[in-house]
Amino acid sequence: MNIKVVHHVRILHNCIYKDDQKLFESATLPFPQFSESAYRHFQLAYPKFHKMDDLSKLGWLAADILLNNSELDISKSPFKRGIILSNKNSSLDTDARYFNMVKAGIASPAVFVYSLPNIVIGEICIRHGIKGENTFFIADQYNIPAQVDYINNLFETGVIESAIGGWVELMNDQYDAFLYYAVKGNSGSHFYPHTAETIEKLYQQK
Prior knowledge:
It contains 7 helices and 8 strands, in the order E-E-E-H-H-E-H-H-H-E-H-E-E-E-H. By secondary structure, the protein is α+β, with helices and mostly antiparallel strands. It has one domain: Thiolase/Chalcone synthase (Peroxisomal Thiolase, Chain A, domain 1), CATH 3.40.47.10. Helix 1 (31-41) runs parallel beside helix 2 and helix 2 packs parallel to helix 5 (119-128).
């Protein structure tokens, strides 16, 4: 089956890249300030962004830049669009924040709601109308072969016709997001075969 990677995005070290082009760079800032700066730079308009936890902000920013809110193939059913992500620390950054709030006698539902890693997928799905297969895996490192095999199987069995794959990790202000968009056939401006070798190469570029 002809499955192609048509775009990829990396957010790392206060920089944002899309398809190997640096789109944004800021001074060294903690992630909350960096994410707000990037949000303003790209002139995004999504008020709920400011209520998200940092992990969700990271994944949401990467997905919005990846798809540019217009490059999602609207001819495909939303139930045929999938998203498969992974990271190392789950939602531990937010979990720790919530735990400290509880110890201080403050139990905030607004923080508690983000104490699951798949919430970042939910935020991306709401933004881009993705209603198909969605899964979040936890692993010590980005297991690219396993993720690629999983996504390819979804394509081959007809479960999906497009997919976002990647790694979204944030812990103690250390962050790394790598997302890519894969579709069947040749569409988009950048074409790479959807193989473990391709994804490994794209991920290691920055």
